[in-house]
Amino acid sequence: MSSPNVFYNDGVSDSDAQNDSSYTRTHHELDAHFVPDASVPLHSHLYEQIDQLEAIDMDELVKLLADSDDSDGINKTPVSLADFFEGLAQLATMGVVEITEIVEAIHREVILRPLGRFNDKHLNKWSRGFTGRIYGTIRHVMQMVGNNLASVLRIYKNLILQKSVQPLPDSLKKLVNVLNGVMGDHLVNNQNALAIPMMLYTQDGKPQSEVLSGRIAILCHGLCMSHLSWQAQAGNDLGEAIHVSQPDTTVLYLDYNTGRRISRSGRKFSQLLQALVDDNPNISQIDLVGHSMGGLVSRSALFYGEQDRLDWIKRVGNLITLGSPHHGAVLERIGNYVQDIIAKLPFAGSLAKLGDMRSAGIIDLRHGSIRDADWKALEGRSVLPQDFRHPARLPSGIKTYFVASALLETHYDSKVTDLLGDSLVSVASALGEDDAEHALFVPDGHKAVFYGVNHMNLIHSRRVREQVVEWLLDNGRSDYAGRPRIHSYPRSLDVAV
Length: 497
Description:
This protein has helices at residues 6-11, 21-34, 46-54, 58-68, 81-112, 120-128, 130-160, 170-189, 238-245, 262-279, 293-307, 330-343, 353-356, 360-364, 415-420, 427-430, 462-474; strands spanning 199-201, 214-220, 249-255, 283-291, 316-322, 399-406, 447-451, 486-488. Strand 2, helix 9 (238-245) and strand 3 (249-255) form a beta-alpha-beta unit. The termini are far apart. It has 17 helices and 8 strands. The chain has an 8-stranded mixed β-sheet, sandwiched between helices. The longest helix is centred in the first third of the chain and has 32 residues, at 81-112. By secondary structure, the chain is an alpha/beta fold.
């Protein structure tokens, strides 16, 4: 106990984080809580120091620790064409390294299991043996080649192209967002230039920079999508419909890395909205419309905005979610179940590593986790089981509307219809219906089910678009709470897919 920072050092020992500027800032803030007065001997008045520790605001401590690693990666501007090639060079290396690890795991299991040596003792010897060193050399060489190539491209970008940065074409932009959805947390952890920063865009596709006032509506996309996903080829997209029906409302589009933890994206979104309000104090109202994961990110931002008592949350008028898996997505649960089965099979267990490659954002969709507490204390990249997740109720005073959809064209009330839902999210999950602890208490009149619409078409469906515009135009003036649930059916016999 020779160091005055003994309490802090026992609590945080991440050597990698110490190189980060945000970590250093957090370190000093935490020292204010933990470091005792220099005029008092360290070993004296021990009980008084313990009393001081008990007075620490633990909520503030958790927030500081969360903020210390809340980085978007190396990009703070939209991904450029040069960033794209630099990121691909590193990404190709990451792929080879990951495949090498899977091949080695299968090789190791095939060799050791028949001999009855597939245990910790012999697994540790494997890494020091001849075969293990060969695999290690392959990984090391590929990482070195990829990092050097990425460094050369980065230098070229900074020296040659700094005066003529070329933006990504829309097709490549969509590809980058797909990559972020599949492996976004890996991109951030490896400081890959393809990692997308969270930003707001205008209707013409440019980063938001103009002065704002009055009412604004922010559209938040779902997994593997981008701010461009809201655009329809016919031009009659939701953003345009809101602008036409409410000319005084400014429509903005959120773009973010959907592969990151939903709670981290929620915290970042909350900070972004606070900065937006600080820079534009004449904003009178904020409406949030989220599709799929975008609805969960919006809820997470509201949760942390209320917890941190930020000013922006007082200006939120409406929250509308479209097919958001508030209580989890069926597909991710099935995928996790299959992965667990494969992991238990002899010689095939190593293939379960393929499932671990999917992003943390996808894993969070398993039970609709929007809080740090659902994963922060766990090892690896999992989340708490459904019955143990932490509830995240909706803030009071905000008018909330939930939209669900079903592939069936007609209203057929059955468990199969509810479970199938829109092919990805069940009707009950999209409507926030669960047991008493986790249920999101939204009146039936604020819920709508659209038949003959699949999950992806929720953002382009004419019927959904008209309902969202109606809710926003009404802006809480009508008593929807006393009305029955809305059921919308297609006018034709064709299923909207």
